[in-house]
């Protein structure tokens, strides 16, 4: 039997009797997939691990608290033999053979009539890896192949475009703060599957260089906009490419809906009848402080954090931010797009009650190789930004949380 390769097949076990002999670690590992497959599971075992016991308590399996008895496999479609008693395993195996029940044996793969592959899942696909014959069995190797394939599919390094189910449209992907490892798994896969990527300056630009050659990458800042506003030109480009039946990824820095104008793009696409899916991203407002050693909340220090845009000064009539109210809060203020206006912002906060000694940290190009943190106080921040030549993009954190971590490296 061992000279022939195993014949791979997917068993559809919903509602069908599966008998598991032995309630130890093997059963504990295998049962969740059998439960997920909807099998009608009978566990025969005098004892079980706490996890297996919990499955029985939850009604996910039926547990007969005894040893194996001849006849247990009579109604089974499939069996897993994994007791610690070799003699019972052999008897059960013989019964499985008599009843023509496919049977996995944890103690003797050579005598088993079925093998469990190393399995993993990614976006509606099950990857199952089997060794060709029993003598060559190397479970760590098959698991490593499974991991490589599943990881590759998830992060887009293994490109397997959908053909039948592929639909044109736009995926609005939050790319995270800049480190290419901080995009979501889904975002990375969609990038690799795209026909066209329209990308902002912020976000994981390093990833763009790694995309397969068929992916057309467009720099959003370079789209000629003529008589349109820049944002309208981007919306039009999205509509145009998706309208040609292409899969378009709109790659944005951080999260698309945090000062990202993401909803404007969703609205324009919806109006044009183009399907659009939003893939959230890690916002710089939390991740950049975190990468610089600053928690936006900390027990006993800050019970709230507020994320504000500082792109217009507090006294600008276009500002929608109630700075006097923010000055009265005791928690953390996270200011995005605020480098140019930080002097006015600090002045306003102090004028409305925040202590001039309140610590401030500015983190420039967070999570990238060029990350830099500069510390100041509300009283000194305007001057510090000038002398230290702090440049956008930077996240500014105002509040006592700036001081709770270890001393920042000089
Ligand atoms: C137009 S907003 C977009 C924010 C983005 N949607 C997000 O969720 O992070 C741009 C601002 O985000 C902040 N920012 C984004 N990425 C950053 C990074 N890697 N380092 C520092 N600041 C960053 C800066 O304040 C920058 O001016």
UniProtKB/TrEMBL annotation:
- UniProt keyword NAD present: yes
Q: In which pathway does it act?
A: Porphyrin-containing compound metabolism; siroheme biosynthesis; sirohydrochlorin from precorrin-2: step 1/1
Q: Which domain of life is it from?
A: Bacteria
Which reaction is catalysed here? precorrin-2 + NAD(+) = sirohydrochlorin + NADH + 2 H(+)
The enzyme's E.C. designation: 1.3.1.76, 2.1.1.107, 4.99.1.4
The record, for SUPFAM superfamilies, names: NAD(P)-binding Rossmann-fold domains (SSF51735), Tetrapyrrole methylase (SSF53790)
Which interval of the chain is the signal sequence?
none
- UniProt keywords, alphabetically: Cobalamin biosynthesis, Lyase, Methyltransferase, Multifunctional enzyme, NAD, Oxidoreductase, Porphyrin biosynthesis, S-adenosyl-L-methionine, Transferase
Q: Which residues form the Tetrapyrrole methylase domain?
A: 170-381
- One Pfam family from the record: TP_methylase
Q: Which GO terms describe its molecular function?
A: NAD binding; precorrin-2 dehydrogenase activity; sirohydrochlorin ferrochelatase activity; uroporphyrin-III C-methyltransferase activity
- Read off the Gene3D superfamilies from this record: Cobalt-precorrin-4 Transmethylase, Domain 1 (3.40.1010.10), Methyltransferase, Cobalt-precorrin-4 Transmethylase, Domain 2 (3.30.950.10), NAD(P)-binding Rossmann-like Domain (3.40.50.720)
Which sites are catalytic? 200, 222
Any GO BP: methylation
Matching entries from InterPro entries are given as: 4pyrrol_Mease (IPR000878), 4pyrrol_Methylase_sf (IPR035996), 4pyrrole_Mease_sub1 (IPR014777), 4pyrrole_Mease_sub2 (IPR014776), CobA/CysG_C (IPR006366), NAD(P)-bd_dom_sf (IPR036291), Siro_Cobalamin_biosynth (IPR050161), Sirohaem_synth (IPR012409)
**Protein family:** Belongs to the precorrin methyltransferase family.
Stated name of the protein: Uroporphyrin-III C-methyltransferase/precorrin-2 dehydrogenase/sirohydrochlorin ferrochelatase
Organism of this sequence:
Streptomyces echinatus
């Amino acid at each position: 039997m061992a000279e022939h390769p195993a014949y791979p097949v997917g068993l559809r076990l919903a509602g069908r009797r599966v008998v598991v002999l032995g309630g130890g670690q093997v059963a504990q590992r295998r049962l969740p997939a059998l439960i997920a497959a909807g099998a009608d599971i009978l566990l025969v075992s005098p004892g079980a691990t706490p996890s297996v016991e919990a499955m029985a308590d939850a009604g996910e399996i039926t547990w007969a608290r005894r040893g194996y008895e001849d006849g247990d496999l009579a109604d089974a479609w499939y069996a897993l033999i994994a007791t610690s008693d070799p003699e019972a395993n052999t008897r059960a195996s013989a019964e499985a053979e008599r009843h023509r029940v496919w049977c996995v044996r944890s103690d003797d793969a050579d005598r088993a009539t079925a093998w469990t592959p190393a399995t993993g899942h990614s976006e509606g696909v099950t990857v199952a890896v089997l060794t060709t014959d029993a003598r060559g069995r190397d479970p760590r190797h098959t698991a490593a192949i499974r991991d490589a394939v599943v990881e590759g599919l998830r992060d887009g390094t293994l490109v397997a475009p959908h053909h039948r189910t592929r639909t044109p449209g736009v995926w609005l992907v939050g790319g995270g703060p800049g480190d290419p490892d901080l995009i979501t798994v889904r975002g990375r896969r969609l990038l690799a599957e795209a026909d066209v990527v329209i990308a902002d300056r912020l976000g994981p630009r390093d990833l763009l260089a790694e995309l397969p050659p068929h992916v057309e990458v467009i720099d959003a800042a370079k789209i000629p906009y003529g008589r349109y506003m820049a944002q309208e030109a981007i919306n039009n480009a999205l509509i145009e490419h998706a309208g040609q039946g292409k899969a378009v990824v709109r790659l944005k820095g951080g999260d698309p809906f945090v000062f990202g104008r993401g909803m404007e793009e969703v609205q324009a696409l919806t109006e044009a009848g183009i399907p659009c899916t939003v893939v959230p991203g890690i916002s710089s407002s939390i991740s950049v402080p975190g990468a610089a050693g600053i928690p936006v909340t900390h027990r006993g220090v800050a019970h709230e954090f507020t994320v504000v845009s500082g792109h217009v000064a507090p006294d600008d009539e276009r500002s929608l931010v109630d700075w006097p109210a923010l000055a009265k809060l005791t928690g953390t203020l996270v200011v995005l797009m605020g480098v140019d206006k930080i002097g006015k912002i600090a002045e306003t906060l102090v004028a409305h009650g925040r202590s001039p000694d309140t610590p401030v940290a500015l983190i420039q190009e967070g999570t990238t190789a060029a990350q830099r943190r500069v510390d100041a106080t509300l009283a000194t921040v305007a001057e510090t930004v000038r002398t230290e030549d702090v440049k956008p993009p930077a996240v500014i954190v105002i509040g006592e949380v700036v001081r709770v971590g270890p001393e920042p490296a000089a």
